[in-house]
Design a protein that fits this description.
This protein has 17 helices and nine strands. By secondary structure, it is of the alpha/beta class. Strands 3-4-5-6 form a four-stranded parallel β-sheet. Strands 7-8-9 form a three-stranded antiparallel β-sheet. A two-stranded antiparallel sheet has the order 1-2. It starts with 10 loop residues before the first helix and ends in a 5-residue tail after the last helix.
Length: 406
Amino acid sequence: MANIIDIKLPKAIASALRIPQNDPQRQQLRVLKKLLKKARFTELGQEYRFDEILFSRNPAKQFQKLVPVHDYNKIYNRWWKKTLQGVPDVAWPGKIKYYALSSGTSEAASKYIPVTKEMLRSNTINYVRQLLTYAALYRDRTGALPIRCVLFFINEPPRQDRRLLAIDVTPPIVEVICAEAHRLGMTVTGHIPNGMTIEQAAAAGMDHIAHLGIRGEAGSDDVNKTIAFLRDHKTVIDPTQSWNELLGHAVGTPIAAFQPGVLKIPPPLNRVFSNAGAAGIDAATARTRLERGLRIVKALHDAGVPVVAGTDEGIPGYSVHREIELYVEAGLTPMEALQAATIVSARAMKMDADLGSIERGKRADMVVLNANPLDAIRNIRSVRWTISDGRVYDAPTLWQSVRFQP
């Protein structure tokens, strides 16, 4: 029988599993015990006496003695087939909801491999590490990074109309990803992972956080404490207030009342946004909720927390305009609101040497307006020309090219 193989686990996996890195055999033994404990009350665990293995003097040898080697057909026909039929507690606690269907190379044309959340959590580390490793290799060969940031979008709750999987990314895993990204000179941006607070996300190393994940009222002790924590960790906040307004407005309020750009979108997008809004609330309640968020945006800005103008999905182009307008409603000056969409965002992405302001030597990316937005922020919508990398485009023609009204 084979002995425990003397290999070294990757540091990321060892850290996430809280396993000491200095003894490979001990690492593997601890992983074995952890798996045995997890599955001890399953049919598999009872059949092969996992309890007896756990309490034996030498669990590794006892495991080799009591648990036979299985090929795919044997383990599928004896155990995994039941899980496909919805039987719980077969080889892993609870029901198995997800399977990896692999193309068969032996014994079976295709193979159903049970996938647990624990496996997905471990794979998350490996996938991200591979991505970052390739980025490092590219950097070493070319002197430039192929990507500038790591995005977190792996914790969205499943929607009713599709079978999505919500993966719980714990703080140790976020720390691993952030540390590796920072080592490569990248930033980490995304939603707050499920089960984590905004403070935990910032402490784990996330540089930018999407959406306004701060509960409470601006000026309260709890909110002030959270804002101070974000400022001390130099965390950038993308509050997406225009998205909140679009989804949270009272259904009876026409979208055009606050977002005139909706009148210019093509029919397919009209169908997307026609059902936006919150049912069961009136316009005053919707406005009160929006203003609570705007007060927090102002408090973040006043405390020195970088605020950048993001929109989530929103109405292409026009939601950026609305986001800037809402910052002025929050109490920022027109110049400060414009900077949130330009130089502050460029600094957050470490691209301010090339973008974010009109200066000699920087890329010629800008818009030319028909009216001064410092006089009235709504003038941000009066775009006459768009200049991208030095090339000048007629703005109405650009809108028409994507079936928008100019």
